[in-house]
Amino acid sequence: MRDSRSYPRRQEPKEFDEKVIQVSRVSKKTKGGNQIGFSVLMVVGDKKGRVGVGLGKAPDVVGGIKKGVRRAKKNLITVPLKNDTIPHDIIFKFGAAKILLKPAPPGSGVIAGGPVRAVMEAAGVKNISSKVLGTRNPASNVYATIKALKKLEKI
Quick one: which of 63, 64, 68, 109 has the fewest CB in 10 Å? Predict the structure, then answer.
């Protein structure tokens, strides 16, 4: 009988690229004291046009990351790409967040702020220019970016 501890596990290549956007420590008042947990916002993408976002809540960060990844994989969307950029410009407002996305010429790269950059890189968009016009809340900006990408039309 082989001992499973002596053989290292083989890492299979991951289908999706996972990125943590925000980790929030939250607490709830209970009769026995404060109950502490974590809320983790995750973005997953295959860098070929599919991207998803998920929010995982758990008593520890690792559990929150796993739940966030699982939920993000369930909420995948397909982004229409045209020459490694988006087909047309779009301004989208979601709550207090307002996002401007514009196609960019080849070689210009991803010109975007933190949360929007993470979503674009996970989706596989290589050339884009963007501006966050509303709130600075990373979660709102990620959700607004995903909704804006959903609204894009294939030309």
Answer: 109
Report the C-alpha gap between 114 and 9 in whole angstroms: 34
Strands of the sheet containing 97-103, edge to edge, are 90-94, 97-103, 128-132, 110-111
- 152: Cβ contacts below 8 Å, ≥ 6 apart: 79, 80, 86, 87, 88, 90
pLDDT over 90 (residue 9): no
Take residue 126 and report the two structure tokens written for it: 């290589």
Phi/psi for 144 (5° steps) reads -65, -40
Q: Give the pLDDT confidence score for residue 8 in this predicted structure.
A: 62
Residue 102, judged by CB atoms within 10 A of its CB (0-12, 13-18, 19+), counts as: middle
Spell out the residues 6+ positions from residue 138 whose beta carbon is closer than 8 angstroms to its own.
Answer: 21, 22, 41, 114, 115
Q: Over the stretch 96-106, which tens digit does the pLDDT of each residue have?
A: 999 999 999 99
Where do the domains of the chain lie, and which CATH numbers do they carry? Answer: 17-77 (3.30.160.20), 80-151 (3.30.230.10)
* Cβ–Cβ under 8 Å, residues 119 and 142: yes
Residue-wise pLDDT for 101-149, tens only, equals 999 999 999 999 889 999 999 999 999 999 999 899 999 999 999 999 9
